[in-house]
Amino acid sequence: MKNTKKPLSLLFIVAFAITIMSFAPSGKVYLTHTGHVWFFSKTTMENIEAHNYQVGANLNSGTGDMAFSILIKSFKFKKALMEDHFNENYLESDKYPKSTFKGKIANIGSVNFDKNGSYKVNVTGDLNMHNVTKSVNIPGIITVTQDSVYEKSNFTVALKDYNIEVPSVVKDKISETIDIHVDVAYSKK
Q1: pLDDT one-digit tens code per residue, 54-70
Q2: Which of 8, 49, 70, 152 has its CA 20 to 30 A from that of 125?
Q3: Residues pairing with 51 in the sheet
């Protein structure tokens, strides 16, 4: 009688290994919980700027998939009254507590995560803010160093695209478009 247990065990191990490899991410995943996002509004009457250093983000170096999550109440302003108006009247942060982005670096093949340098990238995806999701296309730069991966980008959003209404009394103090800046450092593990 032949021993069939050995070939069946080997077949099971090979099938299991292939299954595990098919579900493994095709690159290294970089994470941070201390990303920096800030925005700027410039008008002839007043400039408004706010910073948030509690941004969660992840990046898959193989697929280019990336995601961001930002708590709206974590934006800090120079003037407390501006912060109150921002949270209560414009972004309604109790009702819509966070903003998210889920997308992909379209040209991920142009970034060498094993070689120090700066690489121009184009990120496409969905930005959700104030319970409205819009497709966006954002240029950026990925900088690879021995210790970290940095991501920087600047883009503009129109308040009306996200149903953010500005009362006519303060319309001259708040720009219709807001400049958004992203500056994230992912640690290499």
Answers
A1: 999 999 999 999 999 99
A2: 49
A3: 38, 76
